[in-house]
């Protein structure tokens, strides 16, 4: 009887001690609704792993694209994204590209959840290359998903079509598909 009572007391003490432990787990999502994408807010971030493949010259490209945007209305941001990329072309020298593109990003109200939103991101701008002096027209159309891990930070994944055409005579266009991973920080604006 003493053993049963002692075992029960130890079990109860262990259960209380285990329940009292406060385990800090990292936050993986936040219920944000429309708060981060309201009119007057800012977004700053970019894609840190934009990988693409060109159809014309069978090249592989990796980009770094920071961006900053302003919400002109709920769910619609306009902004600017500079870019730098390395293009590896089979049997040729590597090429460095750089550029700047104004963009428009629209967050869809359909299909959204309290912790994430689908978006469309389009951009058109100018770019240059380590190969020549001519300017290049650059454009992109991407669809993606932003998952909010906190009230102001979202992780993003997107995929889309990219196009480049140099203004130099005799140059060829370069178009292809790309995928990107990135993040955004949403800052509240003045109301």
Can I get a quick summary?
The protein has 191 residues and is mostly beta strands.
Protein model, in words:
The chain has 191 residues and is mainly beta. The protein has one domain (35-187): Porin, CATH 2.40.160. The chain has one helix and eight strands; from the N terminus they run H-E-E-E-E-E-E-E-E. The chain has an eight-stranded antiparallel barrel with strand order 1-2-3-4-5-6-7-8. The chain is elongated and about 90 Å long. The termini are far apart. The mean pLDDT is 83.
What's the topology here?
Elements: H1 2-20, E1 42-54, E2 59-73, E3 76-89, E4 95-107, E5 116-129, E6 132-148, E7 153-166, E8 173-187
Antiparallel strand pairs: 1-2, 1-8, 2-3, 3-4, 4-5, 5-6, 6-7, 7-8
**Mass-distribution shape:** elongated
Task: Give the CATH level 1 class.
Answer: Mainly Beta
Compute the number of structural domains.
Answer: 1
Largest sheet entry: 8 strands, antiparallel, barrel
> Could you list the spans in which at least 5 consecutive residues all have pLDDT below 50?
none
Beginning-to-end CA distance, first to last residue: 70 Å
Instruction: Tell me, rounded to a whole number, the average pLDDT.
Output: 83
Structural class: mainly beta
- Tally of helical runs: 1
Helical amount: under 10%
CATH architecture designation: Beta Barrel
Q: What is the chain-wise order of helices and strands? A: HEEEEEEEE
Q: Beta-strand percentage?
A: over 45%
Q: Give me the Rg, rounded.
A: 24 Å
Tell how many strands the DSSP assignment holds. Answer: 8
Organism: Parapedobacter defluvii
Protein name: Outer membrane protein beta-barrel domain-containing protein
InterPro entries: OMP/PagP_B-barrel
Signal peptide: 1-20
């Amino acid at each position: 009887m003493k053993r049963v009572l002692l075992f029960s007391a130890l079990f109860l003490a262990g259960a209380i001690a285990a329940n009292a432990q406060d385990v800090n787990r990292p936050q993986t999502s936040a219920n944000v609704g429309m708060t981060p994408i309201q009119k007057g807010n800012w977004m700053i971030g970019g894609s840190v792993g934009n990988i693409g493949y060109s159809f014309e010259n069978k090249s592989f490209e990796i980009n770094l694209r920071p961006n900053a945007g302003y919400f002109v209305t709920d769910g619609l941001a306009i902004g600017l994204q500079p870019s730098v990329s390395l293009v590896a072309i089979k049997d040729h020298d590597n090429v460095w590209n750089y550029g700047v593109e104004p963009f428009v990003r629209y967050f869809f109200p359909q299909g959204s959840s309290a912790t994430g939103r689908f978006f469309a991101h389009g951009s058109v701008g100018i770019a240059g290359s380590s190969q020549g002096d001519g300017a290049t027209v650059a454009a992109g159309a991407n669809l993606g998903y932003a998952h909010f891990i906190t009230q102001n930070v979202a992780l993003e994944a997107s995929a889309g079509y990219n196009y480049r055409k140099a203004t130099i005579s005799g140059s060829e266009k370069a178009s292809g598909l790309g995928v990107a991973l990135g993040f955004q920080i949403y800052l509240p604006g003045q109301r």
